[in-house]
Amino acid sequence: MENINFVECLGYLASVLVAISFLMKSMNKLRFMNMVGGICFVIYAVAINAIPVALINLFTVCINVYYLTKKNTSKQAE
User: Fold this and answer.
1) Are 64 and 31 in contact (CB under 8 A)?
2) Is 17 contained in some domain?
3) Whose CA, among 14, 23, 46, 78, lies 20 to 30 Å from 35?
4) Does a structural domain hold residue 31?
5) Residue 69 lies in domain
6) How far is CA 67 from CA 4, 14, 46, 60, 72, in A?
């Protein structure tokens, strides 16, 4: 069996994190886990020179950051 390199491991980790994120009951936990998986996917995609994959995952990371900070900001204002 061929050895799996670091970049491939990062891709598998990203896939697992995104899949696990959909099992979360809390929206904050889902967004956070999905954001971490998305960051891993961005790094993975750049490493394999798959720019469209990097861009869509960067977009989802930004959406997750936006909603996580928006929700936390509105809680602090209360």
Assistant:
1) yes
2) yes
3) 78
4) yes
5) 6-77
6) 35, 20, 25, 11, 8
pLDDT at site 2: 65
The verdict on residue 58 lying in a domain is yes
Cβ contact 35:59 at 8 Å? no
Structure tokens, 19:
């899949």
Instruction: Read off φ and ψ for residue 4, nearest 5 degrees.
Output: -90, 130
Q: Per-residue pLDDT tens for 10-68?
A: 999 999 999 999 999 999 999 999 999 999 999 999 999 999 999 999 999 999 999 99
- With respect to residue 1, please indicate whether it lies within any of the assigned structural domains: no
* CA dist., res. 16 & res. 10, Å (int): 10
pTM of the prediction?
Answer: 0.84
Q: Residue 4 — pLDDT band, cuts 50, 70, 90?
A: confident
In sequence order, the 6+-apart residues with CB closer than 8 A to the CB of 71 are 28
